C-alpha cells in the first residue's frame, strides 16, 4: 500500500514537471533534454529540475 502511494506521488510530480517544462519558453532542444532527465531518472531528475530547470514563463 505504501509503495503504491509513493509511486503515485512520484508519477504526479513527474507529470507536473513535464507540464511545467513544456510551458516554459526555453528552446525545444532544452525542453527535450529536461523531459528525458525527468523520465529516465524520476526522483533524481525531478529534484534536479526543481532546483535548476526551466520554470513556466521563464525565458
Briefly characterize the structure.
The chain has 59 residues and is mostly helical. The chain contains three helices and no strands.
Residue windows where pLDDT falls under 50 for at least 5 positions: none
For the secondary structure, the number of strands is 0
Count of DSSP-assigned helices: 3
Instruction: Give Rg in angstroms.
Output: 12 Å
Write up this protein.
- With 59 residues, the chain is mainly alpha-helical.
- The mean pLDDT is 92.
- It has three helices and no strands.
- Helices cover 78% and strands 0% of the residues.
Topology summary:
Layout: H1 2-23, H2 28-40, H3 42-52
List key phrases describing it.
3 helices, 78% helix, 59 residues, mainly alpha
